[in-house]
Write a structure and sequence with these properties.
The complex is a heterodimer.
Chain A: E1 6-17, H1 56-68, E2 72-73, E3 76-77, E4 80-83, E5 93-96, E6 103-112, E7 115-128, E8 132-135, E9 142-145, E10 152-158, H2 165-181, E11 194-204, E12 214-219, H3 222-241, E13 250-254, E14 259-264, E15 275-276, E16 283-284, H4 287-296, H5 301-312, H6 316-324, H7 326-339, H8 342-359, H9 371-382, H10 388-400, H11 405-412, H12 420-433, H13 435-442, H14 447-459, H15 466-479
Parallel strand pairs in A: 12-13
Antiparallel strand pairs in A: 1-10, 1-11, 2-6, 3-16, 4-5, 4-15, 6-7, 7-10, 8-9, 11-12, 13-14
Helix pairs in contact in A: 2-3, 5-6, 6-7, 7-8, 7-9, 9-10, 12-14, 12-15, 13-14, 14-15
Chain B: H1 8-16, H2 22-40, E1 43-46, H3 48-63, E2 75-79, H4 106-113, E3 117-122, H5 156-163, E4 169-174, H6 180-186, E5 189-192, E6 212-217, H7 220-230, E7 260-264, H8 274-289, E8 293-297, H9 305-320, H10 339-350, H11 353-366, H12 372-395, E9 398-402, H13 418-423, H14 429-434, E10 438-445, E11 451-458, H15 463-477, H16 479-482
Parallel strand pairs in B: 2-3, 2-4, 7-8, 7-9
Antiparallel strand pairs in B: 1-3, 4-6, 5-6, 5-10, 9-11, 10-11
The chains are: A alpha+beta, B alpha/beta.
Amino acid sequence: MSRSDYEVIIGLEVHAELSTKTKIFCSCPTEFGGAPNTHICPICTAMPGTLPVLNEKVVEYAVKAGLATNCEISRNSKNDRKNYYYPDLPKSYQISQFDKPLCEHGYVEIDTENGKKKIRLTRIHIEEDAGKLNHDDFGGGSLVDLNRAGVPLIEIVSEPDLRSAEEVEAYMRKLKSILEYIEVSDCKMQEGSLRADVNVSVKRKTDTKLGTRTEMKNMNSFRSIVRAIEYEVERQIDIIEDGGKIDQETLRWDDVSGKTFSMRDKEDAQDYRYFPEPDLVAIKLSEEYIQNIKNTLPELPESRKQRYLEQYNLSEKDANIITSSKYLSDLFESAITICNNPKAVNNWIISDISRILNETETEPIAIPFDGKQLGQLVVLIDKGTISSSIGKKVLEELFENPRNPEDIIKEKGWIQISDEGAIKEVVTKILEANPQSIADFKAGKDRALGFLVGQAMKETKGKANPKMLNEMFLKELKGI
Amino acid sequence: MDITELTVHELQEKLKNKELTITEITKAYIDRINEKEKDVDAFVTILTEEALEETKNLQKKVDNGEITGNFAGIPIGIKDNICTKGIKTTCSSKMLENFVSPYNATVMEKINSENLINLGKLNMDEFAMGGSTEYSYFKKTKNPWNLKKVPGGSSGGSAAAVAANMVPWALGSDTGGSIRQPASFCGVVGLKPTYGLVSRYGLVAFASSLDQIGSITKDVRDCAMLLNIIAGYDEKDTTSEDMPKKDYTECLKNDVKGLKIGVPKEFFGEGINEEVKTRLEKIIEEYKNMGAEIEEFSLDIAQYALATYYIIACAEASSNLGRFDGIRYGYRTPEFTNLKELYKKSRSEGFGEEVKRRIILGTYVLSSGYYDAYYKKAQQVRTLVMNEFSKAFEKYDVILTPTAPTGAFDIGEKSNNPLEMYLADICTVSVNIAGLPAISIPVGLNSEGMPVGMQLIGNRFKEETILNVAYTMEQKLKFREKYKPEFK
């Protein structure tokens, strides 16, 4: 059978670190980095006798995420213990949520080739992150860093509604943009603050029963996720085509070899012995509390996109790109308040800014300049102070060392020559040097004008006002 | 005058009248510890040197009026599962033999802010699991009334130290009877407060939903005073209750007229020693004579309390004790080749038999496939137990039962028979399951010359009621005046 006879079924468990200032059960900072074991206290190192106190912000952020993804918010929720032994888990249990998560039955919409598609969310629950093991290059063995232990997470579990790597990427991007918009997570994938466990299975389209799934843990880049899924789908189909059986197992994706590897065998199947966390009281949320959070929800990407289509006449494609990231969208909105030229700002973001982000593998959150500076750049072009080709150089400068564009062009001597006398001087000089072009022009070859303007731009290092040059050449040529 | 014979309120009186100084008090206790500890073995860590030094500083401050508190310079003993900054907290386990807590339990902060003098950390069953203090890794504490007998447990060191006058009072912890049963065995007063009245922050957890710190004292007034110090909401323990502070000595009215006392017949049935029954029946008669209304009733559900207790307590313990993994603190096996072996050997070597037994039991009842049959069912029964008690408290102000089915038993008599040891908790566990307050006071001696205890159970946060009912009987019986431990 061919590949197209198979259906791919994918479900995701996405972990997002919440951007609260303090950890979920103690008052240690959540800040990334820091020397090992400097953001710790008796509670997050599980000293005997310590007790957790639930950070209320964590509940608020999780409820926000639930509301932004169309979930039902549980009025009566609780924490549970998930028991397992690992050196990065100091209590030997993770405080999570088992049968009463904070949010349930939501969905997000993604754009696919065949139009919009709803991806259902089973649940969103709160839990604590574990610490980190560092291999000790000097002494051998491993060292435990508990800075991350107790950093709050939400786990967003989807139904197995995804059918391809492309849909998974669209879904992840959508979730990321929503979490950024509501400002509950900074979603920095390189730092692991957004990561996904991907469950993949395949079945013949004619089969009604789902296939056996495998799980790839802790994926933290879109590229790896797409590659891993494509690889895993091929692998599973090959096994089935060869008459084999898929083992239900946890896999590790290796980016270098581009393959998945088995992480643990079935013998070690974990029994987490979930039970209600007796050290914490139930989480009871009032209607008023939930309504208050609802009232603070900002405009979400879908609604911003609609506004951009109607208000600014952006194309669907452009509006999608800009609203996919809160940072891009904020940049856009802030820039147009300065220059009142949405089309131009749109073009800068879609073409040059996106290109630079791609080339440098930078996420929008890391754009070093602000919307005001971008807006000023557009103003300078609109006023004719600089040409758009100088504009590109200014943009590169903004990425390098962000400052006021006006200062940049002054400093670099990039101000456009718009003085009639100066333009005339250049035109005269170029005409004197190119008698053949004059003759060509007179003979009706219009291309000669372009050549002359080009020469003049070269002479002025691109600073001459192209429109004025054009007009001046025409006038002078007619007079000859 | 033997200073160590005095209750804390008597000591306060004498300090106030300048008949005594705090230095004299501390010295008297140090002498007493030096004399009796070798017989009783109540301490894991003795802090006499430190106590002397602290008393010196404190005496100066008291003399120049810097400190005027009622409790400044009063000694105390602390059960060794309550975290004390800079002092070992061992839980009487090899696992924590050299563990020094980096922080103080909330109750220790309270004790310290009242300028009490900590004389030492008291022996217990390892991780508070046991009813005789024989499961301590370090030593077996003896009952001051008869050195061949156990002091009860798990707060056996606390109860024995108070009974032996080595400390005027002590802190214990009670998960299924660990304050009341040793208080009963040692002829002293023990109170397990309502779950949530005293912060658990810094109490090394055995079973989180059942553990509660409480007082072990010479008499009921001291018990109320110590409760005054330790009770109160703590933002570090979200299961503690936020409510106005009370003075628990104000309820001691020496009057029970018109009070309704319920006597559940199940607590006087099979398994309860005849002598204990007879003794308690006499006490019930006394209460009647004092004008209390006594009524027998049925607390049928109580027969399931013991099984329920051991399932819930062990389940929580199996999770709570997971942190003792040899990674960050505590015992680590000297040799291992991989992570699994590090865990396995550290925990096998660091924990004693009883602790391991309960971890295994707890792990089992939480395992997939067994959870519903054991843990879930136990939680359902727990709700029924709570409901039954609630119903009873619609009719009665207090419930009266024996504290333990027998007096203190011989050392070695039950230590190899876990089931029989568990049965010693039969009268006390349902109180923890329901989260209620209960007090044990001595009401006489049995034919072996060992104390018999009475338990009074109150409704949630009705400590005042049981303290008054206990106080009234204490005033009548004058047990402390009549009987003293003989260290035979």
